[in-house]
Amino acid sequence: MTMHEKIKEAAARYPDQRSAIMPALLIAQREHGHLPGPVLEEVADILGVERIWVYELATFYTLFHTEPVGMFYLQLCDNVSCMLCGAEDLLKHLETVLGIKKGDTTPDGLFTLSTVECLGACEMAPVMQVGDDYHGTLDIARINALLDSLRAMAGRVAGVEHASAPSPGE
Ligand code: FES
After folding, report:
1. Residue to substitute in 62, 77, 88, 129 for testing ligand 1 pocket (most ligand atoms within 8 angstroms of CB)
2. For 73-83, how does the pLDDT look when each residue is reduced to its tens digit (9 = 90+)?
3. Same domain? 25 vs 96
4. pTM for the full predicted model
5. Which atom belonging to ligand 1 lies closest to the Cα atom of 78?
6. Cis peptide upstream of residue 126 (ω within 30 degrees of 0)
7. Where does [2Fe-2S] cluster bind (predicted)?
């Protein structure tokens, strides 16, 4: 199914097409990895809504990326509960071990680091969201273990892609 068809199918569940913008953006982001201007315009055109409405939503919510992001999008909560439980130190640690600043992506394209408002999981502060998963009660050791497992996962993905790629001459 094309992106156009998926968006049309999702939008059919909403009486007002403006309400379908969020699910449509999620579909478009899954398809393209991020949401550059032409993709936002395409989403607006598919739904038949004002382009500005689509731009507003895409730039307001941190779950949407208008710029390319790494394979793993690290969103560390820096709101009160997480801050009181050490989020500031975790951010410094992440910046040090990844060699980037908040808002940047590692040169290998693996990690994008950002901070976000309360993730609604204060009981497991400090919390970081990676993709769709929450990781809580974090400390330096857990952050290191998490980064190791994400790197290993990326290695497995690269291995599978390499194995399924045709050899030269095939
Ligand atoms: S303050 Fe971090 S999850 Fe609520």
Report:
1. 77
2. 999 999 999 99
3. no
4. 0.77
5. 2
6. yes
7. 77, 82, 118, 122
